[in-house]
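wait is this the right file?? whatever heres the structure
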């Protein structure tokens, strides 16, 4: 990588000199057989496309420096599998013959006429394995996203694969998640400690494109202690963490969708609470809504809301108390 970086610096230098020294050099160039500039076999394209393309970026907000591809994994000359220009853009015979007056076979920009399937097929010819196995039936695949909706292959830094910048790429299309993740209680994505892809495989066909087959399995990859096994399970917890938590962010601490007692009273009775006795406040009626207004409410007593292991007292053990 370093070597190709230096190579490009030299190359740019050479071009600058070539420009200044004018026609004499241009004549020499014509005589010489074009050499590969970045990748083995790329001379068919780099005889015309060289670092001078960089001065006129074609994509409004990405500025692909065409030759910067030499500094990416796609520029590793030592690797026999490395693509050349034609592996992605096609042989483009017509384009070459007409000296750029017709389009290359595969053009990745949205304005280009190449259908999405053909653009993606160019990448998938080498990358259909691993994470991408489910691409065609993934939500993104079915929505006709192209690989280059997210990836910038010519840029030295591919924003979507860097922790600090990935979310920006997603937010271009996912405004609602931008809003959620910047709420007071959130997973540390904007802080750069984790990324959207910590939970999502955006090439995959799992539900909600999660990295695992279910929400719970995804959460357990980091919050193992919530998996149990517990002696007493709380049914909504084993069912779906998302019943109580909004994984991106909320205004309520602990990413909760609502505060106790309201959170609990979605399912548990508003107007009765058993064993209303000495330990419990003296309420006019045996009402959980009365209990809920006491201090921190339900969670003051039902502390092990994700599941309890207590075997001390069979009457309280199943109630997620210590
Ligand atoms: C004989 C010169 C020549 C050769 C050889 C050549 N091109 Fe081009 N190419 C051009 C010109 C001229 C343009 C139009 C100006 C521009 O957009 O930079 C162009 C434009 C392009 C574009 C942008 C098209 C658009 O509409 O945005 C791509 C992509 C491209 N060429 C890829 C390639 C590839 C890949 C090869 C090798 C297979 C290749 N070119 C070989 C001259 C050439
Ligand atoms: C790994 C696949 C791949 C390889 C290899 C590749 N390109 Fe590209 N090229 C793309 C994609 C994708 C874009 C769209 C912009 C981006 O993602 O950076 C693009 C954009 C371009 C553009 C700008 C026009 C546009 O559509 O935005 C030119 C010119 C170009 N490539 C020429 C080349 C040349 C010359 C080579 C060989 C040195 C080459 N490409 C190698 C995938 C590739
Ligand atoms: C001719 C084969 C080939 C084609 C076509 C190809 N790639 Fe690659 N790609 C590779 C190789 C080889 C590597 C480096 C080894 C690896 O990571 O597996 C790579 C690596 C990558 C990486 C990871 C880079 C890293 O730093 O780890 C991404 C992302 C990628 N390619 C995206 C694309 C996209 C998007 C396209 C289409 C525009 C594309 N590739 C087309 C062969 C190809
Ligand atoms: C919605 C945005 C998005 C789209 C669309 C997308 N990718 Fe990715 N890609 C990512 C992100 C994020 C990563 C890094 C995290 C990961 O590996 O899941 C990545 C990683 C990769 C890697 C390197 C990871 C590895 O396994 O080594 C390759 C290769 C790749 N993508 C190829 C593709 C191809 C091919 C397509 C089109 C079929 C595509 N991507 C479409 C966002 C995207
Ligand atoms: C070019 C636009 C675009 C970009 C960029 C993009 N997405 Fe999407 N994404 C979509 C569309 C379109 C859908 C389907 C409709 C919807 O749910 O909004 C979708 C759906 C999703 C879904 C829901 C999946 C499901 O099965 O319901 C997730 C999760 C997702 N995207 C994550 C991401 C992540 C993470 C990134 C960044 C790495 C990203 N997206 C980048 C367009 C995009
Ligand atoms: C902590 C794990 C986690 C992180 C980090 C995360 N997500 Fe999600 N995301 C989920 C889960 C779980 C769901 C499914 C929620 C559900 O079932 O309603 C989801 C759903 C989605 C959906 C579909 C929403 C819908 O209503 O169908 C989109 C789009 C999405 N996420 C985008 C993103 C983006 C963009 C990022 C990064 C800014 C991101 N996610 C980060 C876990 C996560
Ligand atoms: C990639 C690792 C990872 C995954 C996967 C993950 N989390 Fe987290 N989670 C974290 C980190 C890191 C924190 C922040 C801890 C801190 O700030 O001390 C956190 C914090 C939390 C918090 C406490 C927030 C607060 O305000 O302190 C809750 C609740 C939570 N996660 C729920 C979930 C749920 C539900 C899922 C599954 C949808 C999930 N997490 C998936 C890493 C992860
Ligand atoms: C019945 C609602 C509910 C469900 C379902 C639920 N949680 Fe929670 N979770 C809570 C409440 C309430 C808190 C706050 C606890 C407190 O304040 O003592 C919390 C706090 C957390 C915390 C941060 C504090 C801690 O205990 O580490 C994490 C992490 C967490 N939950 C993960 C999960 C995971 C993972 C799942 C799915 C396996 C899940 N939760 C399912 C209600 C729920
Ligand atoms: C999505 C619905 C739902 C939510 C929200 C919910 N629970 Fe539950 N909870 C249940 C179900 C279902 C059971 C099992 C009932 C049974 O076994 O009779 C249960 C059981 C319990 C039990 C044990 C009951 C017993 O008979 O052993 C307690 C205590 C409890 N929940 C407290 C809470 C608290 C406190 C909250 C709020 C933080 C809460 N629950 C939120 C559905 C929910
Ligand atoms: C002051 C402590 C305390 C508070 C506050 C409290 N509980 Fe309880 N809860 C208990 C005890 C103790 C039991 C076991 C009583 C028994 O089995 O006789 C119990 C039992 C339960 C049960 C099991 C009901 C059954 O039929 O067996 C549920 C459900 C429950 N509580 C939900 C809640 C909810 C929801 C809240 C908040 C609105 C709440 N509790 C607030 C102490 C408390």
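ok assuming it is, sequence goes like this
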């Amino acid at each position: 990588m370093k070597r190709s970086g230096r190579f490009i610096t030299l190359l740019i230098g050479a071009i600058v000199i070539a420009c200044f020294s004018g026609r004499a050099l241009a004549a020499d160039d014509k005589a010489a057989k074009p050499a590969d500039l970045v990748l083995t076999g790329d001379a068919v394209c780099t005889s015309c496309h060289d670092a001078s393309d960089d001065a006129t970026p074609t994509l409004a907000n990405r500025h692909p420096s065409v030759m910067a591809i030499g500094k990416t994994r796609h520029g590793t000359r030592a690797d026999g599998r490395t693509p050349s220009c034609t592996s992605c853009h096609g042989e483009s015979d017509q384009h070459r013959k007409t000296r750029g007056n017709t389009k290359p076979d595969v053009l990745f920009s949205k304005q280009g006429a190449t259908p999405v399937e053909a653009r993606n097929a160019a990448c998938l010819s080498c990358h259909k394995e691993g994470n991408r196995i489910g691409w065609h039936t993934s939500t993104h695949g079915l929505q006709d996203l192209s690989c280059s909706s997210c990836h910038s292959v010519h840029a030295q830094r591919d924003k979507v694969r860097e922790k600090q910048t990935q979310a920006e790429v997603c937010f271009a299309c996912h405004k609602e998640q931008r809003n959620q993740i910047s709420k007071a209680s959130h997973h540390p994505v904007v802080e750069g400690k984790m990324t959207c892809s910590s939970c999502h495989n955006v090439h995959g066909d799992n539900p909600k494109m999660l990295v695992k087959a279910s929400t719970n399995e995804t959460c357990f990859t980091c919050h193992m202690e919530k998996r149990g096994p517990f002696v007493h399970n709380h049914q909504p917890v084993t069912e779906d963490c998302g019943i109580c938590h909004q994984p991106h962010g909320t205004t309520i601490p602990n990413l909760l969708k609502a505060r106790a007692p309201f959170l609990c009273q979605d399912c548990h009775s508003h107007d009765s609470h058993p064993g209303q006795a000495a330990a419990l406040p003296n309420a006019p009626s045996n009402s959980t809504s009365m209990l809920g207004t006491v201090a921190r409410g339900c969670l003051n007593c039902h502390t092990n809301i994700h599941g309890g292991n207590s075997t001390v007292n069979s009457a309280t053990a199943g109630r997620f108390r210590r």
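The first strand starts at residue 185 and ends at 186. so i think its the right one actually
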